[in-house]
Write a structure and sequence with these properties.
three-stranded antiparallel β-sheet, 43% helix, 272 residues, alpha/beta, 10 strands, seven-stranded mixed β-sheet, Rossmann fold
Amino acid sequence: MIIENYQFHYSLIGNPDRAAILFLHGFMGNIDEFDETIKLLSDKFYYLTLDLPGHGKTQVLGGDEYYTIANTAHALINLLDELKIAKCFLVGYSMGGRLALYLTLNFPERFHKVLLESASPGLPTKLERLKRIKIDTQIGSKLTRSIEKTDLVNFLSNWYNQPIFGDIKNHPEYDRMIESRLQNNPYELDKSLRFMGTGCQPSLWEKLEENKIPLLLLVGKYDENFISINTEMAQLCEFAQLKIISNAGHNIHFENTLAFVENIKDFLYAPS
C-alpha cells in the first residue's frame, strides 16, 4: 500500500473484530520478526506487522528524510487510518521501540497501551547524539561494503557479539534468525541507521514525563545498559512499569518468547 512517500509491505493476521496490535521490529528485522509471538497469542488479537523503511520489501519513494522517525511515524498513523484502525495496542522492539515511544508521545489518542522491549527515549544531549551519529556512520559504511553474502554474514556475527545480546549466538534458532536478517539490503539498512538511528532520534526524555498512556518496559537480565536506561524511564514516568526478563539479553522476544508472550497477555488484559 502506498502511503505518502512510502510503499509499505504489511500483513494483517486474525479477526478484525478483535483488538488490534501493531508490532514494530528492530534494526535489521522485518515483517516476520514477531511470528512466534503471534503464533502463541493465537486468535486473541488482530495483528498488524510490517517492514519498516530500509527493511524488507517496504520502499521509500521520497528522499532520505523519509527514513526519519518523525516522517515514518506520521506515515504509520496514515496507514492505520487507511486500514480503519482507530486505536490499537502497540509493541516495539529496540529501534521499533524508539519509534513506538515517539508514536505514543505524539499520537497518544491512537493507542490503548504500549509495550516497549529494549527501547530508549534517545540521547539527552547534543554531544552524545553527535558521537552516536559518528559511530552509526561508521557502522553504515561497513554495511555498504558488505556486497557479498559472506561479508554480511561476518557483519551480523560481529553485531551479535555485542554484550547487550548476551548468549543469543547459542540459541537453537540463531541460524534461522541470521537467514532472516540476510534478506535485507545493506544499502537500505545504512539509510535506516543514518536517519533513524539513536543519534538522529530527537530526545524524548522530557516529553516522557508528560505521558499518560500505560507503558510496560521490558528488558533482558543480561542487558545491563538498557536495564539502567529503563529504570530511569520508569522513575520519570508515573504510567510506566519495568520488568526484567530472565534468560534474555536485548532480544527478549527471540530468546525467551514464552515470557515475552505472558507479559503481553498480562499487560494488555489488565485493567488500565
